[in-house]
Amino acid sequence: MNDIAFSQMMPGAAKANTRLKTGLALGLILVLVLSLWIGWVPIAPTELGGIVRVWLGMEAGQDIAGKALVFGMVRIPRALITVLVGMGLSAAGAVYQGLFRNPLVSPDILGVSAGATFGAALGLLMAGSSWLTIQSLAFFFGLTAVGMALVIARVVAVRPMLVLVLAGLVVLSIFNASITLLKYLSDPYNELPAIVFWMMGSMSRAQWSDLRVAMPIIGGSLILIHVARYKLNVLSLGDLQASSLGLNPGVYRLLFIFLSSVMVSVSVAICGQVLWVGLVMPHIARTLVGPNHEEMLPVAVLSGGIFLLLADTAARALTMAELPISVVTAFIGAPLFAYLLYRNRGSGWS
């Protein structure tokens, strides 16, 4: 990506990208509505109006009271959280790939996901720990992992981007080993299955309280990244070029890493590990609109929301027992990623 010049977009291309983003936004709304209908408690489109009125308390309806409860307390918060997590992971992947100038980088490159998973596993092993405690530990250790990688890179202080990647691998290995140790020490009948299921990822635990946490953190981070997304173009050219253009690469790199890591930590704290979203969606966006982050990042964010919502809908509707969402994203994301590599085999980023 560092050899690509970000030239002025032609008017025709700008209009095409605007139409694409509009289409993705409308597609996201359509998929969101469909996800509210699909499930083991079927909700017909003709029942939707009555269900909403019963859920809001505007009228009584004993025959659809159960469906109104499922609609208002399960499906709406689950769908909205799924969209936020998909958007956050996609944005984090796009940011990391731009910062490290490597299209194979994913949001767990600095050990964020492993640290958050360790925190959740630790909370699951603590006697009497609440759901809030588990999520808080996941969020704390996710940021701790990033902090450790940054400290190691700062101490070494040689070729900072390369050292940061290597430091992330060190932190990732440490937390993965710690997770394995916790699994070894856990009760194989109660605690171990809980840790394993957490690592598989699931949106089934989503609640309105989670949305109240995720909305300001992930939503706010997305807004800040969107506002400063053009600076990713400069940072992707390298530190020397960024400094010559009047940008402080160290400050903005730290800002983007922090915002991305916060989104990943919150996502893992809410739903466990969700794989492939942050790796594949930026590639799709880059294939559609090119490497310019001003155009690519919004496309990646919208695509991530659609992709994860479709995966979650499939996970809870395909079988009698709900599938782990990472299984669905892997089965879809891995072949899609292989196709993208083949399709873009002649370009610089593949």
Overall description:
Helix 4 runs antiparallel to helix 7 and helix 5 runs antiparallel to helix 6. The protein has 14 helices and no strands. It has one domain: ABC transporter involved in vitamin B12 uptake, BtuC (Orthogonal Bundle), CATH 1.10.3470.10. The relative contact order is 0.15. The termini are close together. The protein is mainly α.
SSE layout and pairings?
Elements: H1 11-37, H2 48-55, H3 65-100, H4 112-125, H5 131-156, H6 160-185, H7 191-200, H8 208-227, H9 229-235, H10 239-244, H11 249-271, H12 277-289, H13 293-317, H14 325-343
**What name does CATH use for the topology?**
ABC transporter involved in vitamin B12 uptake, BtuC
CATH superfamily: ABC transporter involved in vitamin B12 uptake, BtuC
Average pLDDT number: 86
| Strand residue percentage | under 5%
Which radius of gyration do the C-alpha atoms yield? 21 Å
Number of helices: 14
CA-based shape: globular
| Percent helix | over 70%
Give the H and E element order.
HHHHHHHHHHHHHH
Quick one: biggest sheet?
none
Distance between the termini: 10 Å
**pLDDT < 50 runs, ≥5 residues:** 1-8
Q: What is the CATH top level name?
A: Mainly Alpha
Structural class: mainly alpha
Count of DSSP E strands?
0
Domains counted in the coordinates: how many? Answer: 1
Q: What's the CATH architecture?
A: Orthogonal Bundle
